[in-house]
Write a structure and sequence with these properties.
531 residues; alpha/beta; FAD/NAD(P)-binding domain; Flavocytochrome C3, Chain A, domain 1; Methane Monooxygenase Hydroxylase, Chain G, domain 1; 3 domains; 7-stranded mixed sheet; 4-stranded mixed sheet; 35% helix; NadB; oxidoreductase; EC 1.4.3.16
Length: 531
């Protein structure tokens, strides 16, 4: 099998991966494995913006407090404060690169760029590029990455697993090229920026969601995973069974949008004093309950009262996209449903992105830093990508320590797997997760999910062991193992907290006096014991 030597290997090219590559490449050469599909990943579809303390009327303590409330008692306060305090510097860096943030038209404004407000925030602190922030940031970062002489981009490769030396340290990744040939990229340090796990579910808010492949690859090397049960469902994805998914930004509610049930009535006012601006877990459960109560396939998000000029000004992308699908949002309410959106759990890391496996780092949605706790607050995700990518790059600033130890290898089989069979297995997995492990989970549903996923795993495992490696099969196997770990984590949390709601244990568990609720921590060995 061909091998090549690298210094810093970054897997994933969204906002987190590109930010790290640009910072690390000023010190060490970087190889960036970035398949073309990364252009359609979660970063590009982040509409609302980036939360940061930028206005003179705002302060760090307020942002910290709002994040802790949204995280429902499970945030790591040290990680929250670190992220919040690093936010303004990260925004200044983006401005220096030329990200075209939307300016405030008010000449009397105390901050030159327009700041919006989203659910859970007590102040306007979301800087944005109209309603397409992710796309603008990604395009700007990609422009600079392409121009950097110390960054080599491999867009012809897909990573399928990680490589360990005999000491168990990460030393790179095994990849497939576009012809299906295997090759090994050996590296002194490897960084996973592979995204979350929304693709475990039938409906997600981006057209090409990750399915936790990076999380599972890290777990196979022994990395600790944390808080997998906290999968965020965005309350408002455009309802259109015939078309691709499209996110209706949180900022639409931040600017005054009203949620209406099938009877045309606002329902959030009676449930939470923050109404439509309550944290996402509360809003998503409320929408789900309304749909269950009325039998409706969706609810409505109404912004007609804002007026067409304001709608076109604040939400040009959303307005244009909905118009392309036959919906005039200035004259009609928008049909919306919750959809899998963001994984608050992932690879457990420190403030520098380091995992529990030496020389393996994780940043962005693949990581669990402690920032989000049991529920991510709106627009803290791009902030986390930027802050932890910059922090991880600083950690990588020391001299490289390449391994001289022998590397673990894996034999490849020769069985050719029908791609249609892989698709059927993946669809079955998504149906199981969507039916039993979504916005509301019951004990009997989790039991059923565990049994069905175990059976599916027994069908797939022999094929994985005998098959010629291919990217769809590797992705399925990683996703299936992560789905089983997610069910295990959900079953173990005997309470309802944040994004994890189980009517069989509907209240917070009582913690010992003076202590905080514990995050869930899992290793792949926990899954193997259940096989």
């Amino acid at each position: 099998m061909p091998r090549s030597e690298h210094d810093v290997l970054v897997i994933g090219g969204g906002v987190a991966g590109l930010t790290l590559a640009l910072h690390a490449a000023d010190i060490r050469p970087v190889t960036l494995v970035r398949p073309a599909s990364d252009d359609q990943g979660a970063s590009r579809w982040a509409q609302g913006g980036i939360a940061a303390v930028l206005s003179p009327q705002d302060d760090f303590d307020a942002h910290v407090a709002d994040t802790l409330v949204a995280g429902d008692g499970l945030c790591d306060e040290r990680a929250v404060r670190f992220t919040v305090e690093q936010g303004p510097g990260a925004i200044d860096w983006l401005l220096s690169l030329g990200v075209p943030f939307t300016r405030d038209p008010d000449t009397a404004a105390t901050y030159p760029y327009h700041l919006t407000r989203e659910g859970g925030h007590g102040a306007r602190r979301i800087i944005h590029v109209e309603d397409a922030t992710g796309r603008a940031v990604l395009d700007t970062l990609m422009h600079h990455t392409l121009a950097h002489p110390a960054i080599t981009i491999r867009d012809d490769l897909t990573a399928i697993d990680l490589i360990a030396d005999v000491e168990g340290h990460c030393r790179g990744a095994r990849c497939l090229d576009q012809q299906g040939a295997l090759l090994e990229l050996l590296a002194a340090d490897t960084i996973l920026a592979t995204g979350g796990a929304s693709g475990l579910y039938r409906h997600a808010t981006s057209p090409n969601p990750a399915s936790g492949e990076g999380m599972a690859m890290a777990a196979e090397l022994g990395a600790e995973l944390m808080n997998l049960e906290f999968q965020q469902f965005h309350p408002t994805c455009l309802y259109d069974p015939e078309g691709p998914p499209f996110l209706i930004s949180e900022a639409v509610r931040g600017e005054g949008g009203h949620l209406l049930n099938a009877r045309g009535e606002r329902f959030m006012l009676a449930l939470d004093e923050r109404a439509e601006l309550a944290p996402r877990d509360i809003v998503a459960r409320a929408i789900d309950a309304e749909m269950q109560d009325t039998g409706a396939a969706h609810v409505w998000l109404d912004i007609r009262h804002l007026g067409e000029a304001a709608i076109r000004h604040h939400f040009p992308t959303i307005h244009a996209h909905c118009a392309s699908r036959g919906l005039d949002i200035a004259r009609q309410p928008i049909p919306v449903v919750p959809a899998a959106h963001y994984s608050c759990g992932g690879i457990a890391t420190g403030l520098d992105g380091a995992s529990t496996v030496p020389h393996l780092y994780a940043i962005g949605e693949a990581a669990c830093t402690g920032l989000h706790g049991a529920n991510r607050m709106a627009s803290n995700s791009l902030l986390e990508c930027l802050v932890f990518a910059r922090s991880c790059a600083a950690r990588l600033g020391g001299p490289a320590q390449p391994s001289r130890a022998a590397l673990s290898t894996r034999e490849a089989g020769d069985l050719v797997v029908d791609i249609q069979q892989i698709r059927q297995w993946r669809l079955a997995m998504r149906e199981i997760m969507s039916r039993n492990v979504a916005i509301v989970r019951w004990d009997n549903g989790l039991d059923a999910a565990a049994a069905e996923l175990n059976a599916l795993s027994r069908d797939v495992a022999p094929v994985v062991g005998q098959a010629t490696p291919n990217a769809p099969l590797a992705s399925l196997w990683h996703a299936l193992r992560l789905a089983r770990l997610t069910v295990k984590a959900a079953h173990a949390r005997r309470e309802s907290r944040g994004l994890h709601y189980n009517p069989d244990c509907p209240h917070h568990a009582q913690s010992p006096a003076g202590s905080s609720p514990l995050p869930s921590r899992l290793h792949l060995a926990d899954l193997d014991e259940a096989e």
